[in-house]
């Protein structure tokens, strides 16, 4: 069902206009519409601004953090466990430690919405973020010519963080698609003091990598690229470590930033992966088969990875390219 026309508040347009003409390293996609460019400029500029302000907030306001008394809404043990499960399924909270997770779970408030109800309206002010417990919700964005469908949110995913991260009006609308949706709502203050810092740090950590990874050129939505950093992690390997064993099913897609990884079949070295952005583990995650090769670290190195659970919300969009690449990369050796 098409939602009614979404209101674009004047503040939102003022803010977007103010953010024009700023250099934008992330906008490598030349097909982007002006709106997309403006949007990414806005997001990027805000991320840069946050570099200072987040650390200022984190450290300058240390006392505030020390004295911060998080909202606490009593819940059954079962509810708390369910929230934790949902938080683990997504990546918004992946950088939190156990204590921080407890605080966030305590502050969450259950909200029930019904079919076709707006949870978020583009252009409005936003003070909370949501984690989906049950149900499905559609996200639409009005770039000026009516609503464009962007994606469906499923249990475990979260949305509504941009307004909190960048103190901007809501950048899209979210409407309930299923008969009912149960959401967990997190307030701005707990988000700012507990989640925001970790989330921004994570986005900065992988920003350069994501800007330069060729594979992502097909992902049109700048927001999706920015969000991908939440799903990226790093693992350290020593020279000679088997990163992935032939015959196994991988639980991650590994991505090379630097270093050398040999590709071996039946203990025979076939070739080496040495290029920035080379990846493996895709046979398991993308094609659903076992790995035909072993991958061995040829030097002490860090390897990035995207866990299997994040595949559908990150790389699935370019699955046909990934499938083609499997043929190109491994076809002659299988
Ligand atoms: P927020 O701007 O607070 O409210 C709308 C939410 O929609 C936004 O945060 C994001 O969580 C989500 N969203 C999903 N896709 C996009 C997109 N392409 N651009 C902006 N927001 C998006």
What ligands does this structure carry?
adenosine-3',5'-cyclic-monophosphate
* Number of beta strands: 16
Q: Which word captures the global form?
A: globular
Distance between the termini: 46 Å
Percent of residues in helices: 25-40%
Count the helices. How many?
Answer: 11
Low-confidence stretches: 1-34, 44-62
Structural class: alpha+beta
Q: Main β-sheet, in a few words?
A: 4 strands, antiparallel
- H/E series: HHHHHEEEEEEHEEHHEEEEEEHEEHH
Instruction: Indicate the proportion of strand residues.
Output: 15-25%
Cα radius of gyration in angstroms: 21 Å
How confident overall, as mean pLDDT? Answer: 82
Across the major sheet, the strand order is 1-8-3-6
What does this structure look like?
With 334 residues, this protein is an alpha+beta fold. Helix content is 37%, strand content 24%. The chain has a four-stranded antiparallel β-sheet. A hairpin with a 2-residue loop joins β12 (261-265) and β13. α2 packs across α7 (188-212) and α5 (98-107) crosses α7. The radius of gyration is 21 Å and the shape is globular. The structure holds adenosine-3',5'-cyclic-monophosphate. Adenosine-3',5'-cyclic-monophosphate (CMP) is lined by residues 120, 126, 139, 141, 150, 159-163, 170-172, 174, 221, 223.
């Amino acid at each position: 069902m098409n939602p009614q026309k979404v209101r674009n508040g004047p503040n939102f347009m003022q803010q977007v206009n103010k953010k024009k003409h700023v250099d934008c390293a992330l906008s490598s996609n030349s097909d982007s519409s002006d709106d997309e460019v403006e949007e990414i400029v806005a997001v990027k500029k805000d991320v840069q601004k946050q570099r200072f302000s987040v650390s200022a907030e984190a450290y300058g306001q240390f006392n505030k953090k020390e004295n911060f008394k998080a909202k606490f809404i009593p819940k059954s043990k079962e509810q708390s466990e369910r929230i934790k499960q949902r938080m683990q399924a997504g990546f918004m909270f992946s950088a939190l430690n156990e204590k921080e997770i407890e605080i966030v779970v305590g502050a969450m408030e259950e909200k029930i919405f019904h079919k076709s109800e707006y949870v978020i309206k583009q252009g409005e002010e936003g003070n909370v973020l949501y984690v989906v417990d049950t149900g499905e919700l559609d996200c639409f964005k009005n770039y000026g010519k009516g609503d464009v469908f962007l994606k469906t949110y499923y249990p475990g995913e979260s949305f509504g963080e941009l307004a909190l991260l960048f103190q901007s009006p809501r950048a899209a609308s979210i409407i309930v698609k299923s008969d009912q949706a149960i959401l967990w709502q997190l307030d701005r203050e707990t988000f700012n003091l507990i989640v925001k810092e970790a989330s921004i740090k994570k986005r900065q950590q992988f920003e350069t990598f994501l800007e330069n990874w060729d594979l992502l050129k097909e992902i049109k939505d700048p927001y999706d690229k920015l969000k991908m950093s939440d799903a990226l992690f790093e693992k350290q390997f020593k020279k000679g470590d088997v990163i992935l064993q032939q015959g196994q099913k991988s639980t991650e897609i590994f991505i090379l930033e630097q270093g050398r990884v040999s590709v071996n079949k039946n203990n025979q070295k076939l070739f080496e992966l040495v290029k920035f952005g080379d990846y493996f583990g895709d046979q398991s995650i993308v094609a659903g088969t076992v790995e035909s090769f072993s991958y061995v670290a040829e030097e002490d190195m860090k390897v990035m990875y995207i866990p299997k659970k994040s595949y559908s919300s990150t790389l699935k969009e370019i699955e046909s390219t990934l499938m083609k690449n499997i043929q190109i990369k491994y076809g002659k050796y299988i």
